[in-house]
Design goal:
Oligomer: single chain
Number of helices: 20
Largest sheet: 8 strands, antiparallel
Radius of gyration: 25 Å
Number of strands: 18
Number of domains: 3
């Protein structure tokens, strides 16, 4: 890996895969993912890390879902058919003897995808296949990447991108690092070019034994490689390279507990922007804000501790000296972000673990009389003998033995979920897209309640809806609007995400006025502006009867 290595990708990325190409891989992806999961065994994710136990044997991590396993399956399929230039006699060397050549067994649907998004591009051609092309190809049939560029740009492109997680590695202190999982995008820094790959296997380290990361790649000496993962979650990699971390889409994770990523309350970048004073004031008492941040982000938000802490402090639910002032403070704070909380001391540990394993993370508390200083953290799963946690403190507990946990726990739990009126109201059809719409709204920063009502008015959550005026699909986009947004209106997942983002842009454009944002979505911003010009504060009277009815139905006014 030399400084002059060129890892460039020209052209566009993130286009929606055409159906004919998707069908080419669908059956093999499902079969391959199922076989991969069954070969690893039951369970998902990594079973523990260095804080689990000092005597544990390193254990392999399963892909967190069938979707992640499908990403791994495609990556391994590509890697099996990549090789060096035939003229290199099997000896790798830069620049002409890396694995940029593919044979006839290379997945044809990936090649077709590359031609679709970047026809004729150097980076997709046989003999020049690049690391970014490899990563795009691995995700192309599962979660097409929304942004791409040179390999060194990836970390910045996905920083604070809604719906995507960045799990830091060697670029941050040990307390802020996280474990990779199969299916993650592995990102290196090596100016001026960098490198990206797909994590295909992880053996988690323990306090006394190293683990490993196995990854598949292109434009490297070998298509499948491993590196050491140390107990402090640093990685031994090539000279001159640094592992920045791992990029993971929320959509490859099958439930909210699996989506939850630990945040360090001692990370200065979580405060401000940036604010040494805020960090100094709150860092050691912000465990409740950190726990809520982790949970809200797992439901699709993209917050920092600062965002939640600001609301928590303004409402008097936290002080620097006491931390969380009252147990109901969690319910009060998350309500301002559109979520509800069932809290108290009634749930048993088995009930909490059962909920977490089923996909709902649970905030729990260690009171000061049982745990020095007191603490709040999140249960994300467990077994009959151990509790799986996300812990924002410097201890970074990931697994705690059941007996030790019961010794520290005071019985408090807070189950935070999207409001039942959004996720389960009988006013909406029994469709899986109701919950997805709520998640997309949270990710876009708009009211999930209003967005779900909006889609219900638009289409009744029918992905095949077609209006007399030609509006198509679940979000009722006109063909021209869908084309401008770069989505297929008949794809309900893509359409809901685009609709939520479009509504968020209108809410921002019209100063938080939901009625005007809805009018712009329904009738167009030009029609709204004409109504504002003619009628001023009575603008709604100047909109069409259809738009007036639309707004009244959604806002219930």
């Amino acid at each position: 890996m030399g400084n002059s290595m060129q890892k460039l990708l020209g052209g566009l990325a993130g286009a929606i895969l055409i159906a004919v190409v998707a069908l080419m891989l669908l059956s093999s992806l499902i079969a391959g993912a199922s076989a991969f999961l069954s070969g690893i065994g039951a369970g998902s994710g990594c079973p523990g890390s260095s804080s689990q136990t000092s005597t544990a044997t390193p254990a392999a991590c399963a892909p967190p879902s069938a979707s992640a396993a499908a990403v791994v399956h495609v990556a391994l399929d590509m890697a099996a058919h990549l090789h060096l230039n035939p003229a290199c006699s099997g000896v790798p060397s830069w620049p002409n003897c890396y694995d940029t050549w593919y044979d006839g067994g290379f997945p044809q649907a990936v090649i077709a995808y590359g031609q679709r998004i970047c026809s004729g591009c150097y980076a997709w051609q046989n003999g020049h296949f690049q690391c970014v092309s490899f990563v795009l190809g691995a995700y192309s049939h599962i979660e097409p990447l929304p942004a791409s560029g040179n390999a060194i740009d990836f970390w910045g492109l996905y920083h604070h991108r809604p719906g995507w997680l960045e799990i830091s590695a060697d670029s941050v202190p040990a307390s802020q690092r996280g474990l990779p999982e199969p299916g993650d995008i592995l990102v290196w820094q090596h100016p001026p070019d960098g490198h990206v790959a797909i994590v295909t296997g992880v053996t988690a380290p323990t306090a006394t034994a190293n683990g490993t990361i196995t990854f598949a790649q292109a434009n490297a000496p070998t298509a499948l490689e491993s590196m050491t993962l140390h107990p402090d979650l640093s990685a031994t990699t090539w000279p001159g390279y640094m592992v920045l971390g791992y990029i993971r889409p929320l959509n490859v994770l099958s439930n909210t507990s699996e989506r939850l990523v630990r945040i360090s309350q001692l990370d200065p970048s979580q405060y401000g922007p940036p604010s040494p004073a805020e960090y100094a004031t709150w860092a050691f008492s912000a465990c409740s804000a950190a726990a809520m941040t982790e949970v809200l982000n797992a439901y699709g938000g993209h917050y920092r501790i600062h965002d939640i802490l600001t609301v928590e402090a303004q409402r008097g639910d936290i002080t620097p000296s006491l931390g969380l002032v009252r147990p109901g403070g969690i319910a009060d704070t998350v309500a301002q972000f559109g979520l509800q909380t069932s809290w108290g001391f009634q749930l048993s540990l088995d009930q909490i673990i059962g909920r977490a394993n089923a996909g709902t993370p649970v905030i729990v508390g260690f009171p000061p009389d049982r745990y020095a200083g007191g603490h709040l953290l999140v249960i994300i799963g467990g077994t009959g003998s151990q509790v799986h946690l996300a812990d924002s403190s410097a201890h970074n507990y990931t697994w705690i033995a059941r007996g030790q946990f019961l010794g520290w726990w005071g019985g408090f739990s807070a189950v935070v979920t999207p409001r039942s009126s959004v996720a389960a109201s009988s006013a909406f059809p029994a469709s899986p897209y109701v919950a997805l719409a709520a998640q997309d709204a949270l990710a876009a920063g708009i009211s999930p309640t209003l967005f779900v009502r909006q889609i219900n008015v638009e289409s009744g959550f029918n992905p095949q809806a077609l209006s007399p005026t030609g509006a198509e699909g679940i979000a009722q986009f006109l063909p021209g609007t869908a084309a401008a947004l770069g989505i297929d209106p008949w794809n309900p997942v893509a359409a809901l995400r685009a609709a939520a983002r479009l509504m968020a842009s209108y809410v921002h454009q019209y100063g938080g006025d939901d009625a005007q944002a809805l009018a712009a979505y329904n009738a167009g911003s030009g029609s709204l502006q004409r109504a504002l010009n003619r009628c001023g504060v009575s603008w709604l009277r100047c909109m069409s009867p259809e738009t007036q009815r639309y707004i009244h139905l959604i806002l219930e006014i």
